[in-house]
Design a protein that fits this description.
alpha+beta; five-stranded antiparallel sheet; binds flavin-adenine dinucleotide; FAD/NAD(P)-binding domain; 2 domains; 6 helices
Length: 289
Amino acid sequence: MGADVDEILVENGRATGIKLADGTQIEAKKMVITSIVITQTLARHLRDVDLGPSGAEYRRKIAKLRTDRGQIFWGHIAFHELPQYIASDWNPDCGQARWIFMGDADIDYLDREYRFNNQHIRPGQWPERLYLWEATDTKWDPRYGPPGKHVALLEEMAFPASWRTEKEWMQIKKEAPDHFLRVWQKYAPNMTWDNVIAANIDTPWDIQHRSDNFVDGNWGLIAGTPSQWGAMRPIPEFAQYQIPGIEDFWMAAGSGHYSLGLTGWAGYNCYKRIAQKLDLWKPWEGRLY
Ligand SMILES: Cc1cc2nc3c(=O)[nH]c(=O)nc-3n(C[C@H](O)[C@H](O)[C@H](O)COP(=O)(O)OP(=O)(O)OC[C@H]3O[C@@H](n4cnc5c(N)ncnc54)[C@H](O)[C@@H]3O)c2cc1C
């Protein structure tokens, strides 16, 4: 725990262990499984390993992976009373939904302007419209907050961490709750600062600094574009959670294919391939997943 892995050791085409940044070597008797994003895996952990005749092509493709789709604002607001949605007038139980998406029917804005405007957020420059998502989990499990109080997770689309300086991100982070509340109030007028106890909205800059896996603050490690999805993820040659020519090395990180929604599923998919190869327990037999 907490150790900085510097290299994956490969001998005679087989992963034999890891080397930590302090020089400690740890032998792998059966296999090495990594949960680290493919870009770091190749550029750092396998930097001195000969990847065979296609090695240069693998490295070039991985270095060119897109990471600029998948950045979000993501954070919490703690408050006193639940949002009272105007929509309850005609949809009485809408406030009870597990997730609430706030938007309008202006598909043209969503298609043509929303992303552009969100990508241009700067200190003091926010789009008039945002499409907020909220999940107030205290509605379901009051243990998430003190008795009678609430906390919601909020999400809004953002852009790569490297597009702004640290100073700019700190200011954007400070301004975010004001703008999120301004939009929320259009749908639930009681969501004013008077109702708010505290807010902390993470930006892609925060996310990038939480884990090296979140490349440029991307929550999905690398982008989920069609060219980096399913059998193409991260690149077709590595889509079976292995690197051709390196035995006993498995890649379980979310930069591998994970199916819809759940990034951690890549670990299970990787296990499936290991189980097929080593004839281990196959939990998917007899069920759908
Ligand atoms: C804001 C946000 C919202 C998200 N929402 C969702 C969601 O709704 N659904 C969903 O499925 N996923 C979501 N995710 C994504 C999900 O949390 C991650 O994609 C998932 O945890 C990735 O799993 P992983 O196994 O690839 O890597 P991680 O869980 O990131 O584990 C990799 C670990 O390796 C460590 N590490 C990196 N480099 C080294 C090194 N050199 N040596 C040693 N250790 C190292 C990292 O610190 C980290 O602890 C979200 C992520 C974020 C940031």
